[in-house]
From TrEMBL:
Domain of life: Bacteria
Cofactor names: pyridoxal 5'-phosphate
This enzyme's EC code(s): 2.8.1.7
Molecular-function GO terms, alphabetical: cysteine desulfurase activity
Domain Aminotransferase class V intervals: 2-365
Family: Belongs to the class-V pyridoxal-phosphate-dependent aminotransferase family. NifS/IscS subfamily.
Protein name in the entry: Cysteine desulfurase
Amino acid sequence: MIYFDNSATTQVYPEVLKTYTEVATKIWGNPSSLHHLGSQATRILEAARQQIAELLGKKAEEIMFTSGGTEGDNWVIKGVAFEKAYLGKHIIVSAVEHPAVKESALWLKTQGFEVDFAPVDEAGYLDLQALENLIRKDTILVSVMAVNNEIGAVQPIQAIADLLADKPTISFHVDAVQAVGKVPTDSYLPERVDFATFSGHKFHSVRGVGFIYAKAGKRLQPLLTGGGQEGDHRSTTENVAGIAATAKALRMTLEKAEVAQKRLQAMKEVIVAGLQDYKDVVVFSQLENAAPNIVTFGVKYIRGEVIVHAFEEHQIYISTTSACSSKAGKPAGTLIAMGVPQKLAQTAVRVSLDEDNDMGQVEQFLTIFKQIYNKTQKVR
């Protein structure tokens, strides 16, 4: 079995699963309880918060836990909008955002906010001049993902930060879900970033746990109200075991990152070179200024799901770009925003690698692809 769908979710590290099991078994008190068991849970919770903050070069009070990337994106987009509505009701998000951001922004339109989508070029990179032209006096939020989940484009976060440097009334949110371990931390968390979203299962933690970075002094309204957990920012009993596991997974991922990125890039280059040998293959992902683990391509005239299932017959698992949209049968939104014709966009499939993959698997993938490509010749 070859698993090449790591942008959808990653396998939990055994050491991380062990941490989860031990905490869930031994530290099962509610952190809100006043007794000793509650205090034990609180210590684990705050130790995890401190570790995550230190790994990212931030303060512990700037880390707040969530259930994952979708909740984090919803919380920041909606929470900032309502918190800062007195300053204006104009929001800008890039045209290639994850649905958790895009749909949150569209929902805000029903609540009286105005939303503009900043365009990208034909390679999927944000048009900085167009973004600058969209900024207004009543703009309160700009949201741009660090690494595109569909084609792997690394967006110019530092350049956007520079653009917003003299605009303190605009909050800057970065969806960093696909960035952890794939690009340097400082590339998606420069000082000007006010909020960032993370999801544990994208870097070998358990599902159902994530966190946001919220710069000290920056406010957003709670998405969940109730018991007042997370400093009254997010009310719900904390998943202490999952949070402890996520802190460990982040440490392990970042410790391996520099070496892993080189290995991933080498595998990506072999895959791209192999695919370019076929005249009816279009490679949508770039080799430069892109995540080292994502290769998105299409076989002309063959829908992406056909290719996905053809590989599955050989126990090779890839996806049709975003896992969140694949079952809906929608073409890759990023490709449409790039100007790719819809019929060609519908051919797109995504290979997403992990440091546990190797060149032997890459060669097997290319061997099987040749067989699949030849079988589709009559259709093409």
